Amino acid sequence: MAPSSPMRLVLVDDHEMVIEGLKAMLVSFEDRVQVVGQAVGAERALTVVAELDPDIVLCDVRMQGSSGLDLCLALRERDPDRKIVMLSVYEDEQYLFQALRVGASGYLLKSISSDELVRQLELAHRGETAIDPGMAARAADTAARLQRDEFWPGARQGLTQRESEILSYVVSGLSNRGIAAKLVIGEETVKTHLSSIYRKFGVSDRTGAVATALREGIYR
């Protein structure tokens, strides 16, 4: 059953065109959801959400600068009850688990239909977890496999398989150049993966990443 008054929604993306597209998708559902504000980028989003106090924040997972995951953490630190639903083009269970780990109320794909989007937002508004229907079954299977330790080292901590591989070389003491040579990729690609590992571990450098890997028993 739809709520008696429309959900108050704030849209966050680093592309205004995406925001306008979402607003167009939702315009015919004004009796169920009302877009009360929008923000281009995470920094602006902090101010907009604080000013408007929406029921739900619908936010892109990956943005330039601070990611949607970082924004979710920041918003939840300010208000632990804040409902944030992540929106992504990435049909990847690891992104889903990362989003839930930082306190998101859901993870939806940008390919979602307008009526399904509204339905999922209503689930989140009621306190349930909104997961894109196309991902739900696979996510449940992945969660079960994680519990059985059938994935690569670091999967429980949200690392992708490539990030896990790179972390193993970091723990072994290889330089960025050495890792790039081993994996036949560019040094900049290695740096990008390392930045992602640091963010997921909540550290700022290689030393912190190695310490976390050893402490968590990812590598010994």
What's the layout of helices and strands?
Blueprint: E1 7-13, H1 16-26, E2 33-40, H2 42-52, E3 56-60, H3 68-78, E4 84-88, H4 93-101, E5 106-109, H5 114-125, E6 130-131, H6 133-147, H7 161-171, H8 176-183, H9 187-201, H10 206-215
Parallel strand pairs: 1-2, 1-3, 3-4, 4-5, 5-6
Helix pairs in contact: 2-3, 7-9, 8-9, 9-10
Q: How would you describe this structure in keywords?
A:
6-stranded parallel beta sheet, 51% helix, alpha/beta, 220 residues, 10 helices
Structural account:
Strands 2-1-3-4-5-6 form a six-stranded parallel beta sheet, with helices on both faces. It starts with 6 loop residues before the first strand and ends in a 5-residue tail after the last helix. Helix 5 links the parallel strand 5 and strand 6. The relative contact order is 0.09. It has 220 residues and is an alpha/beta fold. Helix content is 51%, strand content 14%. The protein is elongated and about 60 Å long.
**Number of helices, counting only DSSP H or I runs of 4 residues or more:** 10
- Order of strands, main sheet, comes to 2-1-3-4-5-6
Computed Rg: 19 Å
As a percent range, the share of helical residues equals 40-55%
The total beta strand count reads 6
Beta-sheet strand percentage?
Answer: 5-15%
Euclidean distance between termini CA atoms: 52 Å
Average predicted confidence as pLDDT: 87
The assigned structural class equals alpha/beta
| Uncertain regions spanning at least 5 consecutive residues | none
Largest sheet: 6 strands, parallel
User: Helix and strand succession?
Assistant: EHEHEHEHEHEHHHHH
The best one-word shape is elongated
